[in-house]
Every structure is written in C-alpha cells, then in structure tokens.
User: What shape does this take?
Amino acid sequence: MRAEHKSFAKRCFSRQFTKDWIIANFARKKQRKMLSKIKSVGNDVWGEAIDFLLPPRCVVSGVPVERQGMMSPAIWGVMNFVSDPLCKRCGVPFDFDMQADICAVCLDHPPAFDQARSALRYDDGSRDVVLGFKHGDQLHAVKAFTPWLQKAGAELIERADIIAPVPLHYWRLVRRRYNQAALMAADIARGNDKECRSGLLTRTRPTPPQGHLKAGERAANVKKAFAMGPHDVKGRTILLIDDVLTSGSTVNECASVLKKAGAKRVDVLTLARVVKN
Ligand SMILES: [Zn+2]
Assistant: This one.
C-alpha cells in the first residue's frame, strides 16, 4: 500500500478523526451525549482493535509509543512549557521575577479579555507539533494537548460557564475540514463537564493569514471579523480556546464582541504562544 493510502486509511480509522471531529463540529447536545455513551461503551474493544491494526505512534515523529495520542520522549523533551513568573493578565512569561503582576504592554493597552494562559512557548520545539495539528490532520494529538491545557488553564476552566473555540471562516473550515480549536474546546469541555459552544462566535469575513503581519496590521486584519452566534452570553463567563496566541489581536477582537454582547468575563486559553525575546 502506498504511503499516502496508508496515511489516508490511518486518518479514516482513527477514533479521534471520526468521533471527535463529528462531536466537535456537528453534534448537538443530545447527540453529543449519545455519542459519548457509545464511545465509552465501545472504546475498549474498538481501541484494542485499532491499536492492533494501527499500532500507536508518536503524533509528531511516528515512532512507536504506548498509547494513541502520546508523544515520544524525544519530542516531549524539546517542548518548552510556559511557567511562572508571568503576567497575570496576558500570561506572557517574564525572563526573571520582575516583582510586577502585569506586563508593560497590558498596562499601556489593557486587552479586552480578562486573562490569557498558554501551555507551550511557540518555538522551534513546538512548531511542528502545532502545525501538524493545524494543517496535517494529526487530530489525535488533541489527547496529548488536553492535559497540558488543563494544567495551564485550570483556574480559567474552573470558572468558565461556556467554553468556545475561536471560529474559522466557513470556507476555511470547508478547506481544512476541521477547526483545531473546536477539537480542543470540545475535549476540555467534555473532561470538565462544561458547556461547549462551537458556534458561539462566527467569522463574518475571511481574513488573510496573519503570519507575516505586524501587530498593528494584525489588529486591522481582524477588525469586525467576528459576530455573535445565536447564543445569550449575558452575565456568563466565557473561555475562548485557540491554537496559537501571537499578538493577541484575534482573541482581543473576539473578547470585544463577547463583552459587547454582555459577557461578564472572557478568558483565553491557547495551546502555544509566541514569546518575544
Ligand atoms: Zn500582559
């Protein structure tokens, strides 16, 4: 079997690709409950069959590992996790203990969100992992990411009424076939018995990729790019999930829309964040 056919078969038979994608993107509350029940009943048998047919491999390097969704020790070793001391508001790590709670950027330009936290530094160690998840169909990696997000955002998850992903524009979702942020949001919500709303916000227009834009250009790029979906957020605490926090423009714009709609508090949790030296 050619390599691409093997890869395609692996994606099709992956439990995460089928069940989590459907749960995250299409299932309504009752359907989610039913699918979760089916999943829990059939998981052991199905899981063993899958592991037999497709032995678990590291989601990045492909070397054999103990369980589906795990990473090899070599990949794990190059991850740089965000740790204290950090800005209490935006979560940027300080190089040393600055005896300050808030960074200079947050003091000068307070963000629209209340708090942001991230699991990883977005650097040479994590880039392939994040991009593989975002563009490479490595959806099963969400199982490796959830414990990291859980640890980085424990307080934010605990106080959230609704967990929601930063949305993709419809056409980008069609092209990519899944929203990586929605997969993480669904998995965190499921594990914490929280309400997950993948359609809480919508993208009103497609925005060009922000990769090479400067901070000011990023803010202009996402200005008025989001709108509320058909949900009431008055007095609710929202936790937004995204893959990478770069300048914060996207989550800031999302938070502005949610606050205007009456949200009491908007927190942000991302898998990785850019940390400028
Ligand atoms: Zn800050």
Notes: The pocket of zinc ion is lined by residues 87, 89-90, 92, 102-103, 105-106 (CB under 6 Å). The radius of gyration is 19 Å. The chain has one domain: 80-273.
